[in-house]
């Protein structure tokens, strides 16, 4: 499908939010975006409404649009519910995926693998996000997909340090993340729900410490949010 100025604006804003080119709380200037993309105000507002519905931006009455913020409350909720939603989506994906979706997942994984080998942090963020988006599409569940999409926005933003390893331990963890993605694909191929859920927990633990590194400079204690109530609830699930 040919790109249009409107679709370019939509994709560019999503990318800039996920890769932190646009920081949380950044105001979006409707006039400058209209000029830059050659659009009138109406299609720009259409894009703002679409992105707001998907959880990327916040539209405030008489104050315009801004990138969705990250604060103590949103981060606490993220850490509490993310593993539960990822596990539920994983189970549903095994039950409902289509062959074409699995093929796209494999292609996305190869791009993620190449980006990790090339130390391309921005590409890793986007391909990792797409990998997990496809799981949501595989689930075929209209209730889970919006929740997963909202989680993935903050997962990408919080987890940025994961894709910019500063030492050998972080590089090892990144290589393990690539292996986990391969494991997800193998488990889907085998229609093994339990293997997918086990990998969800392993994958979550792998990235958790790196997320805490992002949060710690802001003085937020992540320990109270991670590995506690959410994990206990999941471990009791049938």
Automatic annotation (TrEMBL):
This is DNA-binding GntR family transcriptional regulator. The keyword Transcription regulation applies. GO terms for molecular function: DNA binding; DNA-binding transcription factor activity. Residues 3-70 form the HTH gntR-type domain. It comes from Rhizobium lentis. InterPro entries: GntR_C (IPR011711), TF_FadR/GntR_C (IPR008920), Tscrpt_reg_HTH_GntR (IPR000524), WH-like_DNA-bd_sf (IPR036388), WH_DNA-bd_sf (IPR036390). Keywords: DNA-binding, Transcription, Transcription regulation. PANTHER family: HTH-TYPE TRANSCRIPTIONAL REPRESSOR NANR, TRANSCRIPTIONAL REGULATOR, GNTR FAMILY. The keyword Electron transport does not apply.
């Amino acid at each position: 499908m040919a790109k249009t100025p409107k679709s370019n604006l939509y994709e560019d804003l999503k990318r800039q939010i996920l890769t932190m080119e646009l920081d949380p709380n950044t105001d979006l200037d409707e006039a400058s975006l209209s000029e830059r993309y050659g659009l009138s105000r109406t299609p720009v507002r259409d894009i703002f409404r679409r992105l707001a519905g998907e959880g990327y931006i916040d539209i405030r009455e008489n104050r315009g649009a801004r990138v969705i913020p990250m604060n103590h409350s949103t981060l606490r909720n993220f850490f509490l519910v993310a593993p539960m939603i990822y596990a539920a989506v994983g189970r549903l994906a095994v039950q409902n995926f289509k062959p074409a979706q699995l093929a796209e997942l494999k292609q996305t994984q190869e791009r993620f693998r190449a980006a990790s080998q090339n130390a391309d942090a921005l590409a890793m963020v986007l391909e990792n996000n797409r990998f997990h988006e496809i799981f949501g599409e595989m689930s075929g569940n209209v209730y889970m997909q919006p929740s997963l999409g909202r989680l993935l926005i903050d997962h990408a933003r919080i987890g940025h340090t994961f894709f910019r390893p500063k030492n050998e331990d972080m590089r090892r963890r990144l290589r393990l993340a690539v292996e986990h993605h391969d494991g997800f694909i193998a488990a889907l191929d085998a229609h093994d729900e339990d293997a997918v859920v086990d990998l969800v927990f392993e994958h979550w633990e792998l990235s958790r410490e790196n997320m805490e590194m992002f949060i710690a400079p802001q003085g937020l204690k992540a320990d109270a949010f991670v590995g506690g109530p959410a994990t206990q609830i999941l471990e009791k699930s049938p």
